[in-house]
Amino acid sequence: GISLSNLLITVVRKQDGEGHAVLTVKTDKGDYVLDNLNDDVKPWSATGYRFIKRQSSTHTGRWVAIIEHPDVLVGAVD
After folding, report:
1. pTM passes above 0.85
2. Nearest alpha carbon to residue 25 among 50, 59, 1
3. Structural domain spans, the chain
4. What percent of the chain clears pLDDT 70, i.e. is strictly above it?
5. What stretches of 1-71 adopt beta strand conformation (E)?
6. CA 24, CA 11: separation in Å to the nearest integer?
7. Strands 72-77 and 63-69, how do they pair?
8. What Cα–Cα distance (Å) separates residue 69 from each residue in 4, 17, 38, 39, 73?
9. Rounded Cα–Cα distance for residues 38 and 15 (Å)
């Protein structure tokens, strides 16, 4: 099975700017997104979304900001 700490609610902005929530699944092969607007399970980088924040993997009651940096595509800040 998948540990609950690897299932994280994530807030994104769709390409039209509208806010949306998806479920990110952290795996040993990378992070994948489950999205009720799309039947396909995709790597986070293939969604076309701008990632804003997600649940902390160490404390699901906390949210962490996701920052974009030229050297890192997406990083979470606790």
Report:
1. no
2. 1
3. 4-77
4. 86
5. 7-13, 19-27, 30-35, 38-43, 50-55, 63-69
6. 10
7. antiparallel
8. 28, 20, 27, 29, 6
9. 14
